[in-house]
Structures are given as C-alpha cells and as structure tokens.
C-alpha cells in the first residue's frame, strides 16, 4: 500500500465513523423524545451538556473527548510509522522507487482532506435532518416521532442521490468532450483493412481518442515478418508463421456513431465483412475499458502470434474513465459485449466449419467485466469461444464469481483451481501456466483454453464492497510474492486502501499491480497453442515494448516508461551471437 493510500484509508474510515456516530447521536436524541427511549446511561452520554445541572454529568464526556484526541494523535503517529515501513517493502516488491517523506506527509494531507469532507457531510446531514424533523413535527403532530425521523432520513438520502447523479452526469459529459478535444494520434490509418480508413464505413473522427489510437496502432505485416525472422529456427517453422504477408485487421465501432449496442454490433459485422475478416484464421473480440481503451499488449501479442492472419474487433460503450464507467455504464459494458459476440457468432455459423475462423475473447479491467458478462456461466463461455485471456478481472464479474465459488476445496483465491485445470487456469506469472498450486496437479491442457491473469498486487482484482466488513480469502492465505506480509485486513480501512491504490496501480512495471504487459505474450501462446519457447515469447514482448515506446496515446504509461522511472530496463537485452 502506498503512503497516500494508508493515510487516505485511515482518514476515510475515521470519517465514516464520524458520520455514523452523528447518526447514532441524532437517533438517540430522537428516541429520547418518543417511545422506545434509550437507557438513561446511554442517553446521558449522547446528550450535550445544557446547563449547570448537567455540568457534573458532562465531566466524564469531556474526559472521554480528551482521551479520544490523545488516542487519535497516537494513532496518526503509529499509522505514519507503519506507512513508511510498508512503503519500503512495497517498493522493493514492485520494483519502484521508495516514496519520500514529503510523499507520506502529502498522503496524510489528502487523507485529512477526505476526513474533512466526510465530517462536513455528516454535519450537513445532521442539520438537514433536524430542520426536516422540526418541520414535519409541526405539520404532522400526531405522527409518531420514529416515523417522522425515518421520513426525514429518506429525504436526506434522496437529496444526496440527486446531487450524486448530477455530478456523475456532468463528469460523463466532460469525458466525451475531453475525448474529442485531444488531438490524439493524428491522421487515420492508411491500410484499408482498418476502421477509419478511406474505405471504411466508420469515420475516423467519431471514434474518440482511444478508438483512434487502436485503429492506427499495433504491428503491421512488415513488422511481424521482421520480428518472426529474429526468432529461433524452430519458431520460424512453427505453423508456417512469420510470412508477414498479411496485414492484421482492426475493427472499431465508436459510441458517438453507435450509441445502441445492437447498432454497434451490426456496424462491427459490416466492417468485418468489408475487410475480409471472415476469411482469416482467427477473430478476437476485445472489450475495451470505459474510455474505449483496448489493451495494446494483449491485442498486439495476439496479432504477432497469428502472423497477422487475424482480426481484432472492439466496440465502445462509454467515454468515461473506468472508475466512472463502473458506476454508470457497467450494464452497457455487458450489453455491448453480448451483442457483438452474438452478432459475430451468427455470421460465423454461416461459414462451413472447416473454413470458419476461430473465435477468441479478451478484456482487461472493466473490459474483462463486460466481456465476461457476455456469458451466462463458465460452461457457456467454454462452448462459445475457442479461447480467452482475461487480465485484471474485477471480482464482481458473474462468471468469475461463479468459478471462485466452484473452485476445488483447499485452493486459494489468488490461484484457484477450477476442475482439473483442463480448460481454465489462473496465473500470476507465466510459470503458473504449467505449475499447479502446491497440493494440486493439472490435467492435460485441452481446447478451449481460458486464462485468468491476476497479480497479487492488483487492487482492481481484489476490490469488493464486502471487504468493508469481511476478511477476504486472499488475506487469509499466504501472501503473493508481490504483496507485503504487513498487509492486514482491518474493517473499513482495507477497503479504502484498495480504493486509493487503484489509480496508481497502472503505473507499476509490467507484471505488477494493474499492468499486464509482456507476460500476455506467454499467456496467448498457451491459449493459442502456438508452441513457442519462453525465449521467443520474450523476444516478441521486447518487440511490442519497442512498438509502444513512442507517445502515441495508446497507453497511459508503457512498460518501458515504468521501468525507466524505476531505473531498470524493460526486458533483458538480447544476447549477441
């Protein structure tokens, strides 16, 4: 956990307790006026001192307040000490620089600000409720006080809901504006087999920032030929790949032109027809994140391993960032994935089975949530696709939750074992593809193959509202290698730690946090059954890191950039000779 996250979590939890305490005090005063009053001793503690008669009774309360201040100061000191100690260990495990003392102090400043906001919200709620209760009691004197208090509480909740809806709607509008206000990647693609080209049905200008980056990025046929030529002789002979004569197809349907999921699915199929995608060997349905960002490492790895003889398709369901889209567009993510998958499958069924392209699925973060939402159950997924790679999938995805519930008894949550591992495997690193967790063995890999990649240090994977009050399984098990053993579950605090860590988790080097980079080549190699060696997969990953190094707007931060900030290289240099 970062210093900011520890401080923010502590302050946020404190703020929640403040708001809850305010609600309890208000309830106590209200119940004291009507039936069902609180015990005298509790009511005395909740009541504010109001005169000389209460002076003696108020003295214990003042003592408690002084003790609370001292305890809070001691808690801050202990938390700061633990934050510094944990940050040193986290930096060592994740390959980033240690935070400076200024960073830790800034974290507490942010946390204090969060507490102030929550405390202010509690005071505002208390004030609104008092006024509402007073007005309702004057208007409805015969109504029981408990009913009046409940009505006032509902009105306050409704007021906050209205405010939140307005803020989210405004943020959604700003996301659309920002997506088109940025120049992004410049001119559209020159290749006719890409959406946004002159021959395309999809105008380049309507795709948004990340959609434009997707159709203009990725390897070309000549680049694929060059990289395959640098692999081992055995790899060059594998499945006659490396010809480099085929340009990868990339299809994208923007939300601006296709706000309806069915319309977007129809547009995708029309583009696949136009580009000749149904004559390729494979089609990948890649569901992007909230802003339309499609993971370039995963899609590029898929294209390299197919020698360009494939098509990658994506449809946008939101312009908002993943955090905002998770709140307001989760349903849209599943609907788009479901409609696109359904439309592509419907078209594939018209092709003879011996000539039909294989169908694959992929997604990262909210894209994995939406992509998994296209399937009713794990069994349905295995019947529909020929393989899939899900990276950093949230726990709220229904299919993933079902797999975790049905995992083998005794297997953990970080690396659960589903069945015999014949079709579905969970990995934290490439070696886990063939190495089962201790105490278990895998059966023979069989098609279709599905890989769930999840890092122990990825807060997006482990974030779940249940963590507020319940210790999760992944904190009952031995910690993953990239998780500090000092991480402990605490009510409220752990949830806010995960929440605060999510924005920065994408800045970690590949293989840590929410960064799934070069390892995706190994995962796709296993899913596709390409049969390349680990060294050849590393060589392709090195090529992708070079492809993504320029500031194209396709990534918020590349693996190369993260490694440079940590003072190390992205991949080991290729040996000469």
Please tell me about this protein's structure.
With 577 residues, the chain is α/β, with parallel strands linked by helices. It has two domains: 3-177, no CATH class; 188-457 and 508-566, no CATH class. Helices cover 52% and strands 7% of the residues. The protein contains 20 helices and seven strands. It has helices at 3-33, 40-46, 55-94, 101-139, 145-181, 208-216, 221-229, 233-237, 261-275, 296-305, 322-328, 330-348, 366-372, 378-384, 398-405, 459-462, 493-505, 519-528, 534-548, 559-566, and strands at 249-253, 282-287, 310-315, 358-364, 387-391, 424-427, 449-453. Strands 1-3-2-4-5-7-6 form a seven-stranded parallel beta sheet, sandwiched between helices. Helix 10 (296-305) links the parallel strand 2 and strand 3. Helix 1 packs antiparallel against helix 3 and helix 1 (3-33) packs parallel to helix 4 (101-139). The longest helix has 40 residues, at 55-94. The chain starts with a helix and ends in an 11-residue tail after the last helix. Residues 6-46, 239-244 and 551-577 have low confidence and may be disordered.
